[in-house]
Amino acid sequence: MYVTYLGVRTVARSAKLHVGRPCHGAQRNLSTLPSHYALPSGDKIPSVALGVWQASKGEVGEAVKTALKTGYRHIDGAWAYRNEEEVGEALRASGVPRDQVWLTSKLWNTFHAPEDVEPALNESLQKLGTEYLDLYLIHWPIAFKKGSDNVVDEELTANPYPTWQKLEELVDKGKVRNIGVSNFNIARLRNLTANPLKHKPAVNQVELNFWNPQPELLKWAKDNNLLLEAYSPLGSNTQVKKTLEASEVKAVAKELGITPAQAVISWHVQRGTVVLPKSVTPSRVVENLLVVKLPEDLFNKLEEAAASHPPQRSVNPSKNWGLPFDIFEDDGGVLVPDEQDSGERTGAAGWRTGAGVV
Questions:
Q1: pTM of the model
Q2: For residue range 180-239, what is the model confidence (pLDDT) as tens digits?
Q3: I need a surface site. Which of 33, 128, 129, 355 has the fewest CB within 10 A?
Q4: 37 annotated active-site
């Protein structure tokens, strides 16, 4: 597997961890988890990032400054978040050298046409005040026709390869160091990677949390050398309280002397994923950075608890976008053969309303 763990350190702890609002009763020695993962390019991506989705104007800059001061070196953003300019200003004000901060942005649905990809990237680079991105992702596997009101471009949705080829060109130009996808299910990943790729996807950023752990996608990603990134790692805004008050989460946190949020974020990294907690509250930004390796029995306790209930997805724009299918259930009009079978993708001509994942 080409995604490797880096920066593991062992730290003996016989008392509670003095970060955030720790619980009491830690009795075990804890070791830290990987600080970075190595990607196919050889670049090392930090395992914990500050996510800036839904961070409002006037708040996101301070959150970024706090994060960088605390020790974060990974900021996850996107063109669609509408805050890249403030993020860029905070990066420059922090004094942290550009080459020490991992910057991610994302290509919005409206810009999947090959001729629109580079101009969209240039806009993000200009707002962020940087000459390159460390990671650039296709934000969603749905292409909209430019200038339309969310009218789906069936051709580019069924076949994202032309968009991907343009991303590969941007890597070769040095404007982007790594490329990947976001919100792709297994069928769509298999569809994209069936093409003769010059640069394979380094990352798939998806919703992963206690209520939607996606074990099948995680296993497929590991089997196929693809790193997953977890957004909404504590759940949606309406789920966070429920996550932190889950009995299993509280029990693990209490036994280790860490906060419930730290227990969940640690679980994510221990699953082998990059985790993207988001907050504009300084104390929580600090708290979320500390991850520790959970003893195997406690890790398994959280893994089993997360899998014990039906998955509850909190982010799904399918209906809002007027799609006649569910983004996460549908294969986007492509015929993906079974692993042992042969077959051809049907392309736009095979667009099938409500089609399920093969």
A1: 0.88
A2: 999 999 999 999 999 999 999 999 999 999 999 999 999 999 999 999 999 999 998 889
A3: 129
A4: no
